[in-house]
Input
Amino acid sequence: MRPAVRFGIAAVLTSVAAMAADIPAPDRRSGYAMMSPELRAMQDDDAANPGMLSVLDGAALWQQAEGTAHKSCADCHGDAGKSMKGVAARYPAFDTTLDRPLDLEQRIDRCRTEHQQAKPLPFDSKELLALTVYVAHHSKGEPIAVAEDARTGPFIEAGRHIFEQRQGQLNLSCGQCHDENWASVSPARRSRRRIRPVIRSIGSNGSRSARCGGGCAIV
Output
């Protein structure tokens, strides 16, 4: 994916975190609340959730030496259960070197190129998703805490514009579903939804935004 598109995804994700304040606290719901009891049970059971297969792949990649530096993620970060706890909940995060926010996948690839001296993993590749869900798994249950300050402010506003902009063949905006109409979905319709656990386990990264853009708006 081109850098400009990746930038747009980071802006959207940062904006979504900020826009949560626009919905009254008593009315906020996680997508988990819209699942059927069967899907919730599968999501909660690590032995039944197919997303855990990617987590296991990520655990193996965490220990695997890469690049000319012949370093693994563990060589720098040690035990992910300790060093990565809560990390995914803070992404997208501002990178002072690049002077812009990075999502979690971009952060992983930046570590690869800078510290492992390895090629970046392709966006949405099996390996990058596996490392992402492995890191995100250690933030399970943590509240999203994306920084909103003078540095991230312009990106949040850019993301808000994208979030509210109608586009594609259906002339829809992200906000029409996720802000305006989310509460109108009936319990019966919610129970029929089939949300892929592997996608839900990814957490704060661009993959879900990219799929919404292509599948919902048909850009």
